[in-house]
């Protein structure tokens, strides 16, 4: 072993600033947690080498100094400048090996590799970068101007060292953790790592809204029961993203403004109402859904329906389209909330499951290719169950109608509806 100093170059694991490519499957906070775990695994491997001088070159602030490490701030603009500065700031007259924080599987044996007979040592990564670089003394010529964060950075770094006449020992190529696929592969190959243990926990604890957002972005997501049986696919997202169709417009023709669309999704209903000149507001807990609605030029608010909402008791119509009667897993409570939101003579329009006899209030789990959510309170209910829940919520059904295999019910508050008016049924 020739390195007298081991340098770990790292970025403070702040959500939104680190591991942004992991955020295709993880939240910013989860991606930062994986980065923090990867750094902890790397620091542990460095400690296990027995090397006495250990330096952490940190971009950002650290609440505590890792035991056995000297912390120096990174300096310089680009990564090439920061790497060169890290070698200069850590130099104590002995060879130095610098590694990143993205290869938590690195071992003490790799870090103790003997490169006494070489001028430099380099460890490449599978994505074209490199995970370590060793120099006997600082040499800015070896780093400044080398293109960083490309699929040929490792090759360019090797070429630069060789152009300076350096003999280079190549260490084994490692996979770094940049993407969800990288994180999954490392967790499978190295299950004992802190990073791997965290990854396994995160795989089964995604927030449902995260996976719903991924579905809105086009990722395949299904809903399953607690037994793993698929109960629904979010393939309907294509319909949600599209403009309102003929059945949607038929439902909207019944609306009395202003309209509150609960669980508005990407906003096709609110947009269609605006085009009709009907004032409407969408509410959803998904940030992606609200953003997509706003991008369509329609108003939407990110808020659970259970929290205070604008215009309570003054809405002409409250909508529960696309099976949103299932929100919260308690249809009676949701219908009571709708009765609070609508004005005394207003309308509650509910899309129900086409299976009239369905009454399933068991939680569901959303699953993508690599993650599953924690249980989500939800209900899948047909017309008979909804009629029963509505009556308990002091809502009287005024119409039962279907079109193109979709089923709908409309209600008014019992205090203003004429109880003797028969329920009208319509089919198309």
Automatic annotation (TrEMBL):
Keyword check for Transferase: yes
Protein's name according to its UniProt entry: Glycosyltransferase A (GT-A) superfamily protein (DUF2064 family)
One Gene Ontology term of the molecular function aspect: transferase activity
Lineage: superkingdom: Bacteria
Keywords, in A-Z order: Transferase
């Amino acid at each position: 072993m020739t390195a007298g100093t081991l340098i770990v170059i790292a970025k403070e694991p702040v959500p939104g600033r680190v591991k942004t490519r992991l955020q295709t499957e993880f939240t910013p906070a989860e991606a930062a947690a994986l980065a923090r775990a990867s750094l902890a695994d790397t620091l542990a491997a460095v400690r296990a080498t027995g090397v006495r001088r250990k330096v952490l070159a940190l971009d950002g602030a650290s609440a505590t100094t890792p035991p056995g490490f000297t912390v120096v701030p990174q300096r310089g603009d680009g990564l090439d400048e920061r790497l060169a500065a890290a070698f200069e700031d850590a130099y104590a007259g002995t060879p130095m090996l610098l590694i990143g924080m993205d290869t938590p599987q690195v071992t003490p044996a790799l870090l103790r590799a003997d490169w006494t007979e070489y001028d430099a040592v380099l460890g490449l990564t599978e994505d074209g970068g490199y995970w370590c670089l060793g120099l006997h003394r600082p040499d800015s010529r070896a780093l400044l101007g080398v293109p960083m964060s490309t699929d040929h950075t490792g090759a360019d770094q090797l070429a630069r060292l060789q152009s300076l006449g350096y003999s280079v020992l190549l260490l084994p190529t490692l996979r770094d953790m940049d993407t969800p696929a990288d994180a999954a592969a490392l967790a499978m190959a190295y299950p004992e790592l802190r990073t791997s243990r965290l990854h396994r926990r995160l795989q089964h604890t995604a927030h449902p809204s995260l996976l719903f957002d991924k579905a809105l972005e086009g990722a395949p997501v299904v809903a399953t029961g607690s037994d793993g049986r698929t109960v629904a696919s979010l393939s309907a997202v294509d319909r949600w993203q599209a403009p309102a169709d003929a059945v949607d417009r038929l439902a909207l023709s019944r609306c009395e403004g202003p309209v509150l669309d609960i669980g508005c999704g990407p906003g096709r209903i609110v947009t269609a109402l605006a085009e009709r000149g009907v004032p409407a507001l969408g509410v959803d807990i998904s940030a992606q859904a609200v953003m997509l609605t706003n991008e369509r030029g329609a108003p939407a608010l990110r808020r659970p329906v259970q929290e205070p909402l604008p215009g309570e008791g003054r809405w002409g119509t409250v909508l529960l389209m696309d099976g949103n009667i299932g929100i919260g897993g308690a249809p009676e409570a949701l219908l009571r909330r709708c009765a609070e939101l609508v004005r005394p003579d207003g309308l509650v329009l509910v899309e129900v499951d086409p299976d009239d006899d369905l009454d399933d209030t068991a939680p569901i789990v959303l699953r993508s290719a690599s993650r599953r959510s924690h249980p989500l309170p939800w209900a899948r209910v047909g017309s008979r169950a909804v009629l029963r829940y509505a009556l308990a919520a002091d809502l009287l059904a005024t119409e039962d109608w279907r079109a193109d295999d979709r089923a709908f019910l409309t209600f008014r508050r019992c205090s203003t509806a004429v109880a003797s008016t028969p329920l009208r049924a319509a089919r198309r």
